[in-house]
Amino acid sequence: MLAMNYRGPYRVRADEKPMPVILHPEDAIVRVTRSCICGSDLHLYHGMVPDTRVGMTFGHEFCGVVEQVGPEVRNLKVGDHVLVPFNIGCGKCHFCQQELFGNCHESNAQATAVGGIFGYSHTAGGYDGGQAQYVRVPYADVGPTVIPDWMDPDDAVLLTDVVPTGYQAAEMGGIKRGDTVVVFGAGPVGLMAAKSAWLFGAGRVIVIDSQEYRLDFARHFAHAEVYNLREIDDMVVFLKKQTDSLGADVCIDAVGGDAVGNGLQWLFGTKLKLEAGNAIALHWAINSVKKGGIVSIVGVYGPTGNMIPIGNVVNKGITIRANQASVKRLLPRLIEHIKEGRINPKAMITHRVPLEHVADAYHIFSSKLDGCIKPVLIPNAA
Amino acid sequence: MTKALVDTAAIPGWGVDADPENDPTYPMRHIEHQQDRGLTWERPTQQHPKVEILRSIEHNRLPAVVGTSTPPAGLSGMIRRVAFRRSESDWWHWLMLMGADRLNVVEGVVEDLAKGKVPNIPAELGWKSEWQHNQKGVAKKAGIAVALGAGLFLWSRRSKQRRDEEVAGPHSLAAEAAAERAQ
Questions:
Q1: How sure is the predictor about B129, in pLDDT bands with cuts at 50, 70 and 90?
Q2: Contact assessment for residue B143 and residue A374, using Cβ atoms and an 8 Å cutoff
Q3: Residue A41 near chain B (CB below 8 Å)
Q4: Nearest CB to B14: which of A7, A72, A201?
Q5: Residue B42: its chain A contacts at CB < 8 A?
Q6: Contact A135, A62 (CB under 8 A)
Q7: pLDDT at residue B22, rounded to an integer
Q8: Do B6 and A223 touch (CB under 8 A)?
């Protein structure tokens, strides 16, 4: 089968690889119909995530048709068109019982801090991902969800990560009616966080990014006030002036370790990799939120450390909330939102690329070329 | 709350998910309703992998399901095995893994060549799309590269000339002195 093949930082290609097989009674084999490249895939692509091995197939946002099921699979049958949450959850462990499906304790041998994630390095379990014609899906009765007949598969594939991650970012913000919410990052997750902030009753939503085309998109897609960080001398002073000098009620970091906007963080985090990525967005979030406010983090960082003003977290009495999205928990509500027309995720898809051209798709997304917001790979078998 | 620039009434679904009960502990609070606090559970069937799986020493047992992509191999695999003797809290664990990742890139090229495949690195880097969508940028980068290359070439040539002059200088003086003595 054809699959994306990681060859090193900034180097990927499509190669023939062996077909996946059932390795566990709760496994399924899924023929992929759509597979997105996620902003967090770029952290892997840029060589920022430890234990990313050459030869691995990325891809944690995909949907497809069930081709084969293991003997203990009860809820899925061959031929079902399913969307597959990015996190691999057993549904039984201490964490899954609390609907923390992103923190499963039975799916990642290499680390305890994070549950298994499809195609996201061995730090997240060493599973090949869905940027391929076929993929092995463990715990097939837990995560995969049959796509409703009325739903566009383009919406479905975005329900595997981007939509729930953005939604949970707003949910973790504990937004109260009328709150001012600042979202750092106008990538797909930031866009969904801004869009979701309104659903929780925000009174004002501000989006910060460095790319003008993305800010334009945020203005229309998420009804947000937008500001380009390249035009702002001091981000924190600017946001304080925007919020009666007190700061925002809620700040959301939807950027993670690939941020721009600070030379020192860029040097230590992005280039020298002495930090777990460039943490300037989180730095700004902590310093821009009001005292007693909430900082919600969904941006992805590596597992080591970052330079952030933790002293100000204490002094300001800030609550920090963060997690990998619990996709399975959020799906019923998000499907309802799409059905009711409150959100329209597929509007974010700007590029459809055959799997054979995966290297170009990664480069376009990484370098922010051609107005790229969200690229979707279409495997041959689709 | 600060001034709103958007009429929230015009936003589809505004406030439908507002939840005054959403406190910072959600959803961990549900643990209180479980008799045994969920600390034990009926484990899924154990997978028995046929490839080497490196396990975090913070795990007391192998998780029921594991990923089997790209088992550790070669020199990078040896480094990874050493790294996994240390916990996730130890910086050396991660630094060794990052080092192994970089070495693994070289191993990947060697592996390709051993299979008779010369990796098309410009294609893998996506340079075709760079040319398609950013010709100005490519021209600018090429211009900078040419200018740097030319500068480097001129500088090295000038340095070589200086070295030659320095070497030739004393010889030439010595030759002149010898010639004078001979006369």
A1: very high
A2: no
A3: no
A4: A201
A5: 92
A6: yes
A7: 66
A8: yes
| Nearest beta carbon to residue A203 from set B8, B42, B44 | B8
Q: How far apart are CA A208 and CA A348, in angstroms?
A: 17
CB atoms within 10 A of CB A219: 15
Q: Tens digits of per-residue pLDDT, A75-126?
A: 999 999 999 999 999 999 989 988 899 999 999 999 999 999 999 999 999 9
A180-184 and A248-253 strand pairing: parallel
Which residues from B are below 8 Å from A202, CB to CB? 8
Query: How many angstroms separate the CA atoms of A38 and A97, rounded?
Result: 27
Tokens of B90: 């130890």
Residues listed for chain B: 183
Paired tokens of A273? 């990799």
**Is there a contact between A57 and B69 if contact means CB atoms under 8 Å apart?**
yes
The CA distance from B60 to the nearest CA of chain A, in Å, is 10
ipTM: 0.92
Question: Which domains, and CATH codes, for chain A?
Answer: 2-161+326-378 (3.90.180.10), 162-322 (3.40.50.720)
Contacts of A140 in chain B (CB under 8 A): none
State phi, psi for A209 to the nearest 5 degrees.
-160, 175
pLDDT of residue A2: 97
